[in-house]
Structure formats: structure tokens, C-alpha cells
Design goal:
about 425 residues, mainly beta, 4 helices
């Protein structure tokens, strides 16, 4: 059996800006398990449709078990993540400060926490415009001190999006990368797109991984059809299937877990020993494309009955000067921050990291940060065969306009 790790609580969520440009939540100290789940069928994006019946269920936990009166407000954003110049009355219907009244305390768990949730839109409170938004969470006594920022999107049906995913045209990338082709076409008579090269903003993202988010350059236009098929900008790393851990069971080791045990009155779980897959042949495996799901096996209400588990990741890899290794996934907004940076243990001859995660199923990968950027293939490999989801977002700001409308969103899969 491997030597025991040093068990310590690490808050893995950092405070970065939010907005479509980053699609990341800004999370204050002591908060975790932040989710914004849409009622749109088969949608794992924080997305609702303008003037529709969709709802977002927003939830998060306060791990410090504080007694706080929390409220939220809605902020309209530009695509670069900065607040829009529009006034609240221009984008918001109803009072834009709402109490979060759905508050529950953890039940029969080793670590105490408070679970907050709310549904949006609510009666008398909705948005008037499509685009990128975020919820700002704050204490009612301190409205200027934002504790959480949780991004979401509101979409109108303005364009059709034809998405194709194929092997790259470039011969040197055909075995390791994937290429997207996008065609955008207006579907409403009242929508006239002009100066498309500047006003039409088309973004692509792989597996909701914000590290892959990029704006696609317009290749050419024929009539009302806009084509995006640049042979360099539209190519993505194929990467690999996600590694994953199953924390839904706690009394025994789930998938990807070596063992579980209680130490210092806290559940702990150690992952199976992981190794680099850079030069390994591709192997198909089941994953949830980088996502995570909160669920405790055998519990009726996982929101408040799920345990928080100190998960100890172990990676057998020799250190390389100038390289830092991180554990990333949707659960931490794909951030390479201090809280999820691995430490090399000279005695064990491996990298280790301890993260506090709520019971559930988690996809993750190892990312390497160097002086020239963040690289996932260094430890995960690159394969054209990998199953990946791709998301296309089409924003439009008419010349002289003051807001970025979200005209359409679509999802495609590399296997389809």
C-alpha cells in the first residue's frame, strides 16, 4: 500500500472574473458545489430561452456554516465579461434584488454546511434581452461585497447554426486533432445582419472547457449565409477521454478510487494511481465530457445529505523544470489556480493534491502550465478518435448598438 498522504483541507475555487469571455464563476472563500442547472431538455449549459418557460435552478453550499441573509441580483454582460452599459430597467423586469429563501442545513453529515438554492426566472422577475448574464450573490447588509458570481445565458431564436465536426484538413494534424465547420443563417425576417465581420461574434468551445473557448473568424459570406471554416483557427486538440472518480458510494471505493476511510472525523478518498497518457494508444471509455453530478448513493436528498470528501489525487510523473501540474474539470471551472496545483512529493516520487469535493461523479484531466501557456495533451495525449462535445454560440451587436444579443446556441458531438 502506498504511503499515506498529508490530509489537509484545500479550498480549490479561486476568485476570477465571470462573463461569457471566461464563462467562469467567481467564488468567495468557503463556498463550493456551485451549479446552475437548466430545465431545457438535454441541456447541460446554464441556459434559458428568452420569453420561454425554461428555468434555472441555482445552488451552492457554504462550507463555513455561517448564518447569512443572502440575496442575488442579475447583471447584464458584454461578451468580454465586463458589465453592460445598459441600465437595469433596460434589461430587467421587476425588482433586481431578491432574497434567497430556500436555505437548508446539512443533515447527518460529518462536515456541516448550508445549502442555498433559488429558481430563475421568478414571478415578476425576468430579463428582457438575450445575451450573457451573471447572478451576483451578496449579504443583504453588504450589497457591495459580492460573494459569488454565477454566469448564465439567455438565448433568442435568431439564427440557424449548421455545425460539422471532422478530421482536420491539415495532414500533420489528422490523427490528433478535430476540426469544426460552422454556417450561420438568420431565420427571422426582422433580423438583418450587417458588417458581419465585426458585429457577428461566433464562439466555439469543446466540452464546456473554458480553456478551449475561442472566437472563430469569418471565412466568407454568400447572401445571408456566413461561413466559419478557417483551417487553423477552427482546429481543436482531440485530447483523450476524461479520467473520472465516483464518490457516490462512500462506504466502499467507487470507480477511480483506491480506498475510502474516515480520518479526523472527515471522509477521505484516494484515487487510483494515475500515469501520463501522452504516448499511450487511444482507448474508448465512458465519461460525461468533463461535467460533474452531485449525488450520494442511498440518500433521498443529496443536496443536504451528501458528505464532503477529501479526495487525494496521485500522479506518477517525473517533475520537469518550468512545468506546473493541475487537476482541472468543470467542477473547478477549468482554472489552473493555486488551490488545484499539484505538489511533487520527493519521498513518494509522485505528484499529489487534496481537494474537498461533495459526493458525486466527477470528470477531470491533468493540465500542465508552462511559460507559454496551459497544455492538456502533455499528460493526456491527443487523439482524433476522442469523443468530444462542441458548443457554438452566436452573438450579435448591431452597429451602434449597446448590447450583445445571443442569437443562437448549438451543440454537436464528434461521434455523430
Amino acid at each position: 500500500m502506498m504511503k499515506s498522504l498529508t490530509y489537509r483541507a484545500l479550498l480549490f475555487l479561486s476568485a476570477l472574473g465571470c462573463g461569457f469571455g471566461s464563462l467562469s464563476a467567481q467564488i468567495g472563500v468557503g463556498f463550493a458545489s456551485v451549479q446552475a442547472l437548466s430545465s431545457v431538455p438535454d441541456c447541460n449549459l446554464p441556459l434559458i430561452h428568452l420569453n420561454g418557460t425554461d428555468r434555472l435552478t441555482v445552488s451552492f453550499d457554504d462550507l463555513q456554516d455561517r448564518d447569512m441573509n443572502l440575496r442575488y441580483r442579475v447583471v447584464y454582460l458584454n461578451t468580454d465579461g465586463t458589465p453592460s452599459s445598459l441600465r437595469e430597467i433596460e434589461y430587467m423586469e421587476g425588482i433586481n434584488k431578491t432574497d434567497i429563501s430556500d436555505v437548508e442545513y446539512s443533515f447527518n453529515t460529518r462536515s456541516n454546511y448550508v445549502h442555498y438554492s433559488f429558481v430563475f426566472p421568478q414571478k415578476g422577475r425576468n430579463v428582457k434581452l438575450s445575451g450573457a448574464y451573471c447572478f451576483e450573490i451578496f449579504e443583504s447588509e453588504y450589497p457591495d461585497r459580492v460573494l459569488l458570481r454565477i454566469p448564465f445565458m439567455v438565448c433568442e431564436t435568431g439564427v440557424s447554426i449548421d455545425l460539422k465536426i471532422k478530421p482536420p484538413t491539415r495532414v500533420d494534424l489528422v490523427r490528433s486533432h478535430q476540426e469544426v465547420e460552422v454556417k450561420v443563417k438568420p431565420v427571422r425576417n426582422d433580423l438583418h445582419i450587417v458588417q458581419a465581420e465585426r458585429s457577428l461574434q461566433v464562439y466555439a468551445m469543446q466540452n464546456q472547457n473554458t480553456l478551449t473557448l475561442r472566437r472563430l473568424p469569418l471565412s466568407y459570406q454568400t447572401g445571408d449565409n456566413f461561413y466559419y471554416n478557417n483551417k487553423n483557427e477552427d482546429v481543436f486538440d482531440g485530447l483523450n477521454e476524461f479520467r473520472n472518480i465516483d464518490l457516490r458510494p462512500i462506504m466502499y471505493a467507487g470507480r477511480g478510487i483506491d480506498f475510502t476511510r474516515v480520518l479526523n472525523d472527515l471522509w477521505n478518498a484516494q484515487t487510483l494511481l494515475q500515469k501520463s497518457r501522452e504516448y499511450k494508444p487511444y482507448q474508448s471509455d465512458d465519461d460525461i465530457d468533463g461535467n460533474f453530478v452531485i449525488k450520494a448513493e442511498g440518500m433521498e436528498n443529496s443536496d443536504v445529505e451528501a458528505e464532503y470528501v477529501m479526495v487525494h489525487f496521485v500522479l506518477q510523473e517525473n517533475p520537469v523544470p518550468g512545468r506546473e501540474v493541475y487537476v482541472i474539470g468543470k467542477f473547478n471551472d477549468w482554472k489552473c489556480a493555486d488551490g488545484n496545483r499539484m505538489t511533487y512529493d520527493n519521498n513518494m516520487k509522485m505528484y499529489t493534491l487534496s481537494l474537498l469535493l461533495k459526493q458525486g461523479f466527477y470528470d477531470y484531466m491533468f493540465a500542465v502550465k508552462t511559460s507559454d501557456g496551459i497544455h492538456i495533451p502533455y499528460l493526456e495525449g491527443d487523439h482524433q478518435e476522442t469523443e468530444n462535445d462542441y458548443y457554438i454560440y452566436v452573438f450579435y451587436r448591431e452597429p451602434g448598438g449597446r448590447n450583445d444579443r445571443l442569437l443562437g446556441v448549438t451543440k454537436g458531438n464528434s461521434r455523430q
